[in-house]
């Protein structure tokens, strides 16, 4: 795939169609049916023609709402083929939140799969494959939309109005090429769609990178990740790699399945992105699955991938860094914060947030704390907005989590700040475990490995932790839950 001028999102399958149209592009996990690149191209063109026939013109905005199914892929590429700007929409969002996004993006209609959920009643929904499509609503295009814009991605903001990030065809071409080249993806590779395709991680690093390299992608039967079907899906598609967030890696470690060892033995690599992965978990994954874990670092404002560990990197690099910048990205550390610049960095935000919150003179402040070693490898040490201020001492919760995750019996852990009238905030750890955890022993372990002000003053034990749609720890909900349920002396030291 070349990052040439004029490349469009729909061109992502062009080389594969020309080179081997009979190669399998998509596996449908529900019926174990397949769709070749040639068949995919035909469905994309037919749907694109219908979009045009229903009055949508290049530059108009349309939303695509479907699980990880064939309909999502066809809808995305068809809208791109028609020159439309696409809004990937999370099917699980409540109707009011969907309405908010549709209104902000000025979407004229919603392309859906066969099982649309939480519909916005007065918005036209066009089910791919249906004979009847209602008329599209009339909407002005969002302020600031550009001629090369291909996608509008919503940030996962948990409070206030979500921000709209425009992805251009050019930035997508660079980003997808970067993923393909970083991992050496080719037509001999295959994977399973673990991450939701409406999110940048699943969209760029899984779907588009696979299609651009001519590989095969398994779409799970339920349209989403399931630990119970994952290994059979991997076996069916002949998977050689997969990409996921740390939460899912841990789930797979905790729920071994029949056939796992033989499947894992043929994996070339395992990619981890979107949140920090503890060193001990990385080593365990590599032992159990028999493949190197390659950590990557990305964000929506950089068209997903910013840096990644390469397959050829040494173990120390794999365990302690997120690798070197990719996609022509330049990274610098300014006052402890990671700043980046490059062709995949977006120009800013659309709508009420405006471009003023975007890059400053070509540089984007990531909001992440980090360091760069003498070889150019980047280490992310925390998130500025997550810092806990305990009496003036700044505590990075990610650092505390990395340490406590090494304690026996701890499956996952979340660290947040609890409001306190004396110190401002106190450090609270919420430990997820299926077994009883010795809180006193865990506290002693923390004291031996952390600075005094980093040691959690409250430790709660739970069977589950709240997560975001992409599987990250939801710190806002966790903090709210802790404040709402905390009572003096309950499950704490």
From TrEMBL:
GO terms for biological process: fatty acid metabolic process. GO terms for molecular function: medium-chain fatty acid-CoA ligase activity. Residues 15-350 form the AMP-dependent synthetase/ligase domain. It comes from the Bacteria. Residues 399-471 form the AMP-binding enzyme C-terminal domain. Keywords: Ligase. InterPro entries: AMP-bd_C, AMP-bd_C_sf, AMP-binding_CS, AMP-dep_synth/lig_dom, ANL_N_sf. Belongs to the ATP-dependent AMP-binding enzyme family. This is Acyl-CoA synthetase. The gene is fadD7.
């Amino acid at each position: 795939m070349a990052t040439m001028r004029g490349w469009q999102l729909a061109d992502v399958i062009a080389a594969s169609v020309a080179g081997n149209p009979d190669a399998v592009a998509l596996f449908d996990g529900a019926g174990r049916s397949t769709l070749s690149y040639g068949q995919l191209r035909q469905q994309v063109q037919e749907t694109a023609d219908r979009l045009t026939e229903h009055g949508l013109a290049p530059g108009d905005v349309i939303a695509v709402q479907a699980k990880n199914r064939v309909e999502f892929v066809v809808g995305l590429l068809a809208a791109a083929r028609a020159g439309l700007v696409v809004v990937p929409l999370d099917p699980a969002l409540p109707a009011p939140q969907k309405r908010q996004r549709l209104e902000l993006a000025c979407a004229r209609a919603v392309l859906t799969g066969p099982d649309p959920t939480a519909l916005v009643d007065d918005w036209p929904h066009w089910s791919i494959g249906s004979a009847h499509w209602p008329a599209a609503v009339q909407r002005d295009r969002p302020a600031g939309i550009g001629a090369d814009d291909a996608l509008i991605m919503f940030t996962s903001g948990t409070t206030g109005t979500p921000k709209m990030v425009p992805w251009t065809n050019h930035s997508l071409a660079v980003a997808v090429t970067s993923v393909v080249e970083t991992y050496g993806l080719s037509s001999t590779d295959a994977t399973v769609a673990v991450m939701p395709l409406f999110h940048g991680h699943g969209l760029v690093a899984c779907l588009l990178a696979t299609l651009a390299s001519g590989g095969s992608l398994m779409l799970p039967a339920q349209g989403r990740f399931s630990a119970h079907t994952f290994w059979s899906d991997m076996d069916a598609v002949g998977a050689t790699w997969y990409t996921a967030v740390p939460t899912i890696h841990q789930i797979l470690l905790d729920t071994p399945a029949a056939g796992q060892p033989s499947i894992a033995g043929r994996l070339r690599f395992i990619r981890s992105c979107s949140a920090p992965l503890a060193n001990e978990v990385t080593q365990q994954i590599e032992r159990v699955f028999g493949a190197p874990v390659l950590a990557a670092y990305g964000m929506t404002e950089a068209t997903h991938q910013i840096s990644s560990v390469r397959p050829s990197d040494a173990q120390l690099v794999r365990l302690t860094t997120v690798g070197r910048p990719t996609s022509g990205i330049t990274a610098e550390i300014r006052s402890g914060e990671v700043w980046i610049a490059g062709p995949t960095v977006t120009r800013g935000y659309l709508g009420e947030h405006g471009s003023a919150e975007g890059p400053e003179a070509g540089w984007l402040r990531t909001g992440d704390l980090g360091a760069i070693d003498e070889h150019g490898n980047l280490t992310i040490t925390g998130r500025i907005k997550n810092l806990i201020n305990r009496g003036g001492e700044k505590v990075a919760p990610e650092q505390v989590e990395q340490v406590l995750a090494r304690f026996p019996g701890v499956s996952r852990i979340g660290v947040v700040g609890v409001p306190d009238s004396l110190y401002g905030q106190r450090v609270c750890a919420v430990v997820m475990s299926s077994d009883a955890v010795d809180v006193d022993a865990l506290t002693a372990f923390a004291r031996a490995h952390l600075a005094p002000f980093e040691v959690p003053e409250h430790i709660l034990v739970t069977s589950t932790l709240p997560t975001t749609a992409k599987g990250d720890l939801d710190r806002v909900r966790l903090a709210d839950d802790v404040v709402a349920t905390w009572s003096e002396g309950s499950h704490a030291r």
